[in-house]
Amino acid sequence: MGCGSFNAAKADAPAPKVKQSTSEGASQNMNNGKKILVAYFSWSGNTKAVAEEIHKQVGGDIVEIVPATPYSETYSVTVAKAKAEQAANARPAISTKIDDFDKYDVVFLGYPNWWGSFPIPVATFVETYKLDGKTVAPFFTHGSGGEQRCLSDLQKLTPNAKFTQDLVLSGSSSKNAQGQIKSWLDSLQF
Ligand SMILES: Cc1cc2nc3c(=O)[nH]c(=O)nc-3n(C[C@H](O)[C@H](O)[C@H](O)COP(=O)(O)O)c2cc1C
């Protein structure tokens, strides 16, 4: 798809911020006896809003996937870099650190659709923190292209995870999606 159709989503979104990459919210980190982590990548805040709502509803810990070298706040620069990284199948370093990742049974993993697929730092994340044997509940936001290869490319990277039904939201609906998130979580029995 062309860039024009997702410019609007960026225009409405807050400026990206680099956050401390530590797990937090450990006080209520069990749901149905499962230890939960919500992990997300977000450049302009849409997926972050969804991640925070999921965390609010299911509890557990939440962590942001943060590239060691942040993306530019300039849309066109980030678009060009993301495209080049995908073409090169790059693995940029991430600053995200998670202690004792093995303890998590369920990982809610979310990111925006970037060129039809995952932003490349997500690949670094799943190759660093192995999802084998874990339940993975994927969620995506997009400009207008929908899911495209967001899920199928993730499944290729981590074929030994147990995937639930995913949640796909347009970026423009991401800040008002409490009801859709609740329905999705109910359907997954969380
Ligand atoms: C580098 C880049 C590439 C994108 N590629 C697509 C795309 O191929 N299809 C699409 O529907 N949206 C695309 N988008 C739009 C984002 O998926 C959408 O705005 C998303 O909600 C942004 O999430 P975020 O605020 O968490 O970063 C792209 C955005 C960027 C910055």
Automatic annotation (TrEMBL):
Gene Ontology molecular function: FMN binding; oxidoreductase activity, acting on NAD(P)H
Stored PANTHER family: EXPORTED PROTEIN-RELATED, FLAVODOXIN-LIKE DOMAIN-CONTAINING PROTEIN
PROSITE patterns, per database record: FLAVODOXIN_LIKE
Name under which the protein is recorded: Flavodoxin-like domain-containing protein
Domain Flavodoxin-like: 36-190
SUPFAM superfamilies: Flavoproteins
Species, as recorded: Phascolarctobacterium succinatutens YIT 12067
